[in-house]
Amino acid sequence: MKIKFKLYATLQDKLPANAVDNAVEVDVDEQVTLFQLIDQFGVPRESAHLVLVNGTYFAAEQRAETGVLSDGDVVAIWPPVAGG
Questions:
Q1: Whether the Cβ atoms of residue 12 and residue 22 lie closer than 8 Å to each other
Q2: Number of domains in the chain
Q3: Rg (Cα) of the chain, in Å, rounded?
Q4: Residue 44 falls within a domain, yes or no?
Q5: Does 83 fall in a domain?
Q6: At 11, which CATH number?
Q7: What string of DSSP letters covers 15-65?
Q8: Beta-strand pair 74-78/56-57
Q9: Buried b (16+ CB within 10 A) or exposed e, 27-59
Q10: Whole-structure pTM value
Q11: Which strand ranges, in their side-by-side order, compose the sheet holding 56-57?
């Protein structure tokens, strides 16, 4: 199945060269976990602070579950943000 994978801020350099607007379309197995997807792109798990699937937040304890993605889903990830 195909999904759109988006990385933001300091994570965007983990995307392949063909990424457009911080996103790339990828083929994934139906039973892929969010952690497997995160690992596939070389994103350190501790840097995947905010993980959304179609705008719904997935906490760290949910990211090892299988079957959470469907064809056409959008996975977006942001790193932790520091600031004052």
A1: yes
A2: 1
A3: 12
A4: yes
A5: no
A6: 3.10.20.30
A7: S-TT-BTTEEEEE--TT--HHHHHHHTT--GGG--EEEETTEE--GGGTT-
A8: unpaired
A9: ebeeebbbbebbeebebeeebbeebebeeeebe
A10: 0.93
A11: 23-27, 2-7, 74-78, 50-53, 56-57
Burial class (CB in 10 A: 0-12, 13-18, 19+), 26: middle
State which H helix or E strand residue 3 sits in.
strand 2-7
Residue numbers of the domain that contains 67: 2-78
List the chain pLDDT tens, one digit each, 84 residues: 999 999 999 999 999 999 999 999 999 999 999 999 999 999 999 999 999 999 999 999 999 999 999 999 999 999 998 655
